């Protein structure tokens, strides 16, 4: 049970579909962009300013991610009766995200939501915002928006009108909720996430990079493993690309796919590809130089199932992109694969790490057997003249295992109902003790993702009593957890659903010993409202 | 309260809670993205971070909360936004398979 598209009826199209369109053949000039807004939005919104520099009520007072603008247009369609062609919808998202998007710095710390990597507990901006907004939404949902103070106030009023019982919920009815939200929260949001910012001004003035070219890619697909390959982007229009991806997984299995990509706001890469028959989506951000893309690739139909992805542009120079695995145990011969491009020259794996034997070598991949001696620590590896060094960690003993995600929610589904199961994909990260000799402290040395055997157990005595481990789901050998069936379960007390609280246990081998780590799993009821961003 | 003995699990949990405000604060900071921190009642978690005080199975009183727009980011609110959600599924405990989701991504 690795990749599946069992709910293809509802395959999430979203920005992937928008990317697939590729309908805009030339960059929209400012007047064309304005006209597109006039044609679709001024039935309700009013225009002011000059013809050359118009301002559209509400619209011009906000900036958002491409997904944020898509949600806005979706809401206008559903609640306000907006009718527009799919071509205009795609073009509007592009125009609005390009002209009223977020600067790269403004998305920092919140990219997990754009990447749909949502099995986390947010750290919390502050108690007031958590209680007022984070009670229903992720904090990233509002932190990835910029509005004038008035616009934040309008948003409070929208919630008051659309969801009037908001005032009666916990953390609302014990206080004058509306007054606080309107007079305090909206003001704070306007200060923290303002319409005008230096970051956005600078980004608007910055030169735009074209991402056409060849990219060396590495990543991880749950159930398949780590992969390395090449991605080619051929420009079809301004900000639109045809994309091909070829490569292989760590076990040698081939990987191949193709699709379309759109570049929003000059750096937000959104692609929809079909890889070996499975629809996948990429959400990545280009760096300032346009030489690297970082983000996540996930199943289009199941955004929870995905993994990190990185792409490094081929600039004709020697470049070491990754080492798989990026750790080796001192004193043991270990097989390592060096992933890169134009890999010419001597291999240097850092102090005390000896290349015992090169097993295979070509311009973009070197497989070798290495042995490390000396103290624990991070070595910097290089091949030939590569400027970018790649970290290789030498360790003596695996001290602890971290299970990622540490906290996750999955949801019951299937069983003939309309809601698919929401699964979760796990990985185990190994650590050695670090300089202080104690595990679980800040100086623990992160070794990297390690192969693990997976199991579940009840989270506590209550969960054991309810037999949550029997009913709530199971985990497979690759670390993918599948929750139980939806519906009432007559075997459970009061015919309870197959919900439960579990510990997900990873067991990692370290020589003859095994080291275990645990993560928290909540198997919950359905999320019937599947927004583009939670 | 000291003369009353808690008879079931939910009552025992309530007795253990120091105060409702403290409980709410804890849960509000502990939910995974996508879950609601509204816990009176909760959808994914109860005020104690567990499942013991949830309405279970959820189908038994689904509309009691959906109609009141209690978790509009998780369950379609039939007050304003999705008034037709649940139509034809009068008895959710029997016909839960007919309940549809709001899949915003799908155009």
Automatic annotation (TrEMBL), chain A:
Keywords: Signal. Pfam families: Dehyd-heme_bind (PF09098), Qn_am_d_aII (PF14930), Qn_am_d_aIII (PF09099), Qn_am_d_aIV (PF09100). Residues 1-30 form the signal peptide. Gene3D superfamilies: Cytochrome c-like domain (1.10.760.10), Immunoglobulins (2.60.40.10), Quinohemoprotein amine dehydrogenase alpha subunit, domain 2 (2.40.128.120). InterPro entries: Cyt_c-like_dom_sf, H-AmDH_asu_dom2_sf, Ig-like_fold, Ig_E-set, QH-AmDH_asu, QH-AmDH_asu_dom2, QH-AmDH_asu_dom_III, QH-AmDH_asu_dom_IV. Residues 210-313, 317-396, 401-530 form the Quinohemoprotein amine dehydrogenase alpha subunit domain. Residues 32-200 form the Quinohemoprotein amine dehydrogenase alpha subunit haem binding domain. GO terms for molecular function: electron transfer activity; heme binding. NCBIfam families: QH_alpha. This is Quinohemoprotein amine dehydrogenase subunit alpha.
Automatic annotation (TrEMBL), chain B:
Residues 32-104 form the Quinohemoprotein amine dehydrogenase gamma subunit structural domain. It holds the Pfam family QH-AmDH_gamma. SUPFAM superfamilies: Quinohemoprotein amine dehydrogenase C chain. InterPro entries: QH-AmDH_gsu_dom, QH-AmDH_gsu_sf, QHNDH_gamma. One of its GO terms (molecular function) is oxidoreductase activity, acting on the CH-NH2 group of donors. NCBIfam families: QH_gamma. This is Quinohemoprotein amine dehydrogenase subunit gamma. It comes from Marinobacterium marinum.
